[in-house]
Design brief:
The complex is a heterodimer of chains A (510) and B (415). Chain A is built from 17 helices and 18 strands. Chain A is of the alpha/beta class and 510 residues long. Chain A folds into 2 domains: 43-266 and 404-501, 3-Layer(aba) Sandwich (Rossmann fold), CATH 3.40.50; 277-361 and 367-401, no CATH class. In chain A, helix 4 crosses helix 17 (472-490) and helix 11 (292-305) runs antiparallel to helix 12. The relative contact order of chain A is 0.14. Chain B has one domain (2-414): Outer membrane protein transport protein (OMPP1/FadL/TodX) (Porin, Beta Barrel), CATH 2.40.160.60. Chain B has helices spanning 2-13, 29-33, 46-49; strands at residues 61-68, 70-78, 83-86, 91-92, 95-102, 107-122, 135-150, 155-173, 187-207, 212-219, 222-234, 247-255, 258-267, 271-280, 287-292, 300-303, 309-319, 324-333, 351-362, 366-377, 380-384, 388-389, 392-393, 396-414. In chain B, the strands form 2 sheets. Chain B has a 14-stranded antiparallel barrel. In chain B, strands 22-23 form a two-stranded antiparallel sheet. The chains are: A alpha/beta (510), B mainly beta (415). Chains A and B meet through helix 1, helix 3 and strand 4 of A and strand 2, strand 3, strand 20 and strand 24 of B.
Amino acid sequence: MKNILKYTFAVIALGFVSCEPEFDSPVTESGFYSSGTADLSKYVAVGNSLTAGYASGALYITGQENSYPNIMAQQFGFAGGGEFTQPLMNDNIGGLLLGGNQITENRFVLAVGPDGNPGPVRLVGTPTTDITNKLTGPFNNMGVPGAKSFHLVAPGYGNVAGVATGTANPYFARFASNESTTVIVDASNQGASFFSLWIGNNDILSYATSGGSGVDQTGNLDPSTYGENDITDPNVFASVYSTQVEILAGQGAKGVLVNIPEVTSIPYFTTVPTKAIPLDAATAGALNAQFAAYNTQILPGLAGMGVISPEEAAFRMLNFTAGQNFPITADKDLTDLTDILQGPPFSLPASTAALLGKLRQVKADDLIVLTASSELGSTPDPNNPQGVVGVSIPLGDEFVLSKTEQARITTASMAYNATIQGLAAAKGLAYVDAKSELAKLSNGGIPFDAGILTSQFVTGGAFSLDGVHPTPRGYAYTANMIIQAINNTYDATIPKVNIGNYGTITLTNN
Amino acid sequence: MKKVLVLAVFALASAVTYAGGYRVSLQGNKALAMGHTGVAVVNSESVFFNPAAMVFSEDKFSVSAGVHGVFASIAYQDPMTGANDRTKSLLGTPFYLYAAYQATDWLSVGLGIYTPYGSTVEYEKDWVGSHLVNKIELQAIYVQPTVSFKVSDKLSFGGGPIYVNGSVNFNRNLNRTLTDLDGNRSNVTIDASGVTGWGWVASTMFNFTDKFRMGATYRSEMVLEAEDGDATFENIPNSPLTPFENTSIDASMPLPAEMTVGLSYDFCEKWLFAFDFNRTFWDAYKSLDIDFANPAIPDSKNPRNYKNSSTYRFGLQYDATKMFTLRAGYYFDESPVREGYFAPETPRNDSNNFTAGLTMNIGKHLQIDASFLYSHFKEINASYNYYYEDGIAVPFKGTYKTNALIPGLGLTYKL
């Protein structure tokens, strides 16, 4: 009797031990996935806003949680990966404070306006991330929003005191190990077994998003003289980039290098159409009449005088028709006619001369930036309803990325990418052709289990509401393409994620 | 001691369990120990298994009550992505209470209270399949007044009405990605309790000899019509584009009809063999549809499209001593889930089930009934193909492995 009870309980106890269902080969078992010849135990990611998880115009917690390095690190966890830490923001609002004063804007959210149409607006709220509250690192994610290639090796880039004067970066100031350190030193001091480096985007991006308002610094080897919106000299890029790779790979770490995608296929440049101005026949006719002298007398006259070439004269001709029209713009790459037109033989009043000084119409191969959407068609002077931007007032040069400016970007980025690819090959590092991969987004899109990921603004799923940075789904796609390169190079079998499980844009009405 | 070993060997050699879908076949410790057979067995659990058998009982009065502890866990993994999860090992406690009274030598009356349907599954919140289910708790209590009458010593009939009182609590995320501003997943909880319905049971027993019996029992379908349940939405973004707000719901869930036929054979004085065949008419479960009262919230349609399924049950009983009766059994339980409809809220594939148990007689009137069930499910690659995003079917695939261990304990008092 006693024995029977004993045995009964023994059988029951045995049962409980084996109660947990176990797979024949559990994915959580070491060896199911392999890191191949790479050691993923300590992964450090170096880069800019893309690496940080910046999205919708700000850095915030949920964006950071969906940064591509964090997504990769979760997957690395199946193949020997270790802990992955990030300098998380304090909230999901996004803006930064410096000593209580807000210095960067809040994130965008998709809100439904009074007209019932959804559109991006800045989230209303007081951010709580003050950069004077230093975080204790180090952090595996060394992505610093706004950093250009040469910033990663710039001492003092994390000095809070330099933020106001523009010599330091507010994001890096939050977690730099000391005031004089560099991003690359703080990264390399962690002794990573594996690293990723994706830098150089901002070396052309700020030039592009500012409509080419900066300077192409090709030929200038001193980055300390560069303006915020300038294009970095490719030799400067090559020099600092190879230094960074040298440092990160120095102790035998394996890693992955990611090249620079085409910036001009992102929604920031493709959402506002070049033919942005609707006109009826009467208005088109009136405009043609108004600019008749410019087309038929001034431009041919100046060409005849040798002031401008016949090609430039033809390039600057204006023409309006009933329907959608190209807006007028001031292009700083054109010959400035303001002074000449005030003198004989034209002797135009200063205001007219200034209007015509760099005037042309936007062309089909120009790109109008996203922020122009609120500018085009606006009437900046409420007392002058005739003064319409794009029609009678030229759209500012900073809103138009001309074909010429695009060519400068392409030239520089091709040079950067040659450096990146060359170094990857020389060092035996994995190489990600992000340029080709991301080009697919605007060329048919990337199919996934619930549709197609495209670069269409708001609805395409890949790009956040700033039109530049990816959504969580876009970052998940990025993580997958990097994992693929790692798997190929190091004979690893790190599993990819299902990008359909990652969100896109955030809905919120203020 | 020797006998215990025999029992253990038998339990290993045979194998059986749990029924498919959300049917919980745990309606008596005596029956369960014998592979949940009983349609052709006369004992204190006949109120459920075959009311017609009540009238052949040797006891003037009997009452049996018991409970089973269901320790079940489901593991999920997707080797493509590494995604994995396992349900919490929740304790379900299906119970039963049967009373039977021999009113005359040809008529018995009885009452059964039992819980033949139910399901408790809880995954880690926001797991990879959370757009299909985070958690479900389904319960149905049947109350069945019963009569049984003898036509002759060979033939009897029995039956009665069944009143059912059920409840359901179901939580899932609205889709795979929607969150509020802080990244908390938008989800909905459906809650309905006190849902009632009516059905009936009818059965017959035929004794070829006093050692060889056959029986048949039919239990009708009942439909739980939840009207005015609650839908509670959580973490919904503040946007007119997501007009989800708490509202009431209408939904219905069938508790399918079940037909059982079987036989039992008394041999070598102390042995009893029983075989039951169940057919559960799961084709009643076409779709789990939730109709939200608020017209701005689209109704939720979740095709299930179950098929009728069979269970084959074998049981053996051995009257070892005056004090002990030992039992063991096996059953094979067919899943009602069709290919492509494998939803994680009731992830049932075919199972092999092994049972064992005993009754201990304490004096003339009291019995302790104990049983133990181990359900073995094969690892299965399956998918649910009827979840849609923007009109596109997004299959939820993966590998599942389920285990269930169910000890049970009951008491019988008889006169």
